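anyone else get weird line breaks when pasting these?? whatever heres mine. first is seq + tokens for prot A
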Amino acid sequence: MLAAERHRRIVAEIARIKFVTTDDLTTLLRVSHETIRRDLALLERQGELVRVHGGATAAQTPVGEEASFSERSDAFAAEKQTIGRAAAALIEPNQTIVIDVGTTALEVARALPTDHVGVIATPSLLVAAEVSTRPRAEVLVSGGRLRGGDLACSNAQAVEFFSNLRADAVFLGSGGLAPYGLTDYHLDEVATKRVMLANASHRYVLADSSKFGRTAAHRVCELSGFDTLITDQPCPAELRTALIQAGGSIIAG
């Protein structure tokens, strides 16, 4: 089979089922894994697909700007509270925990018991203000440039702060979650999120079901870059398959 025909069939298969594995394509096209990897790399450069761990998925069109903090606070409020409670239940006393920025991350802070004991580090002034009402919690704030609405800190100062902090767990907010990976809207905050992930023993991503299949402008990491998704309902089949193949687990309320 000529390369052009292989490429046409790969694109058609992804258009049909949205996600294909490398193994599936080697069987379908009767070529080696190395040939498929070269084909996928070329098609990704051409914008026909996006490579992910174990295969490829349909190219995603990035969504526009993030909605305002007040709009996001009102949307999916019950679902975010469910995620927040599920996340807070995973936090043990005397741990060092990182809680990210965003409306769902704020629900994790709100769900912590009033007698919680431990260290809470955050780039969010809203999260910091919430957990500061727990008299036995030690609160660390990264500092850095402040973004209005979410009151989120970022820049080199925030990156350095989290580079020097080893956490038992991080609870990361999300702009979108697709087989392509975890994405976010704010470029300055991506570097902070990556350092948080790199320095935590357990890495959780918080995403309500409205984030499924959504791609924000900036990729934070591939699906293999975190351990567990905490969400409010079961994932679509293609995203669930991609998460499992990447070695991740899912907690759905």
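and prot B, same format (seq, then tokens)
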Amino acid sequence: MTGDWRTDRIGAALRGENPTVLRRLEAGFAVIGDVQFLPGYSVLLADDPAVRRLSDLPRAGRLAFLSDMDRLGEAVERACRRLDPEFRRVNLEILGNTDPFLHAHVWPRFAWEPAELAGKPVWLYPPGRWSEERFRLGPRHDAVRQAISDELDRLYATP
């Protein structure tokens, strides 16, 4: 997966050109992460690239974004629990330190993680985890991608 979509992830999602999109949600897009050293890592992108922080949204928009984040987190949790018996939990984060648009990280956490990192933020993983080819999103991640998509479909089919 290469191309201009990475420089304008939200615009590409709006145009149907972002290949990481799992599903359109109420306030944004659920996407699978570019890196999968923790299989199932996903991101919620706000659907307006001009929105930089949660507080930029009106109250109803904030609640919709947070509800989408909750559902994406639940979908990742259900999918990862089904696919990996060593799944432990999901961490949800809205940071905004690097990318200028509103987004939320959904990190699955597993019992097989190195002991020195298991109870710490994923940002403390070695830099190579973010760039090694074996962790780049690819066909080997189709099962987790499909499982999260299926769970999102179930969650959004239910009021």
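btw re prot B: The chain has a mean pLDDT of 94. The chain has four helices and five strands.
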